[in-house]
Amino acid sequence: MLGGSFEAAYLRKLIWLCVVLFLRTTLCVFQVREWIGFAGVDTNNISDHLVQFTFMTGGGKAKRSFLQLIWLLCTWVVWNERNNRLFNNIATSIPRLLDKVRLLSLGWLKAKNAMFVFGTQRWWSSPLACLGIS
Predict the structure, then answer these.
(1) How many other C-beta atoms can be found within 10 angstroms of the C-beta atom of residue 121?
(2) Domain count along the chain
(3) Does the first or last residue of the chain, that is N or C, have fewer Cβ atoms within 10 Å of its Cβ?
(4) What does the longest C-alpha to C-alpha distance in the chain come to?
């Protein structure tokens, strides 16, 4: 059994690795912002990054909720990319990571709303218009 200090140090290192990976894949976040249709500047603090990404465009609760979903999906995709690089020695290109965010967000919205009628092509071209929150 490992000692508590070793486990804590390992956990800190793992968290640091995830933060570094997320912040270094800001190109993915940049492309996500470009896909959604807004620009911004990234911060080096992960919690500030979420707040800035969510509130930078203004808008109501629906828009903020959508942006939180997209940010969390970016985090999920980056975490999975970290696992693939670490355990499988497989690296995915930034455009493919963006595709994963797009597909996961569309799948989540269709699962939560059976009446969501937009397909992949329309969703990929203008997600905010599909949600009626342009």
Answers:
(1) 7
(2) 1
(3) N
(4) 54
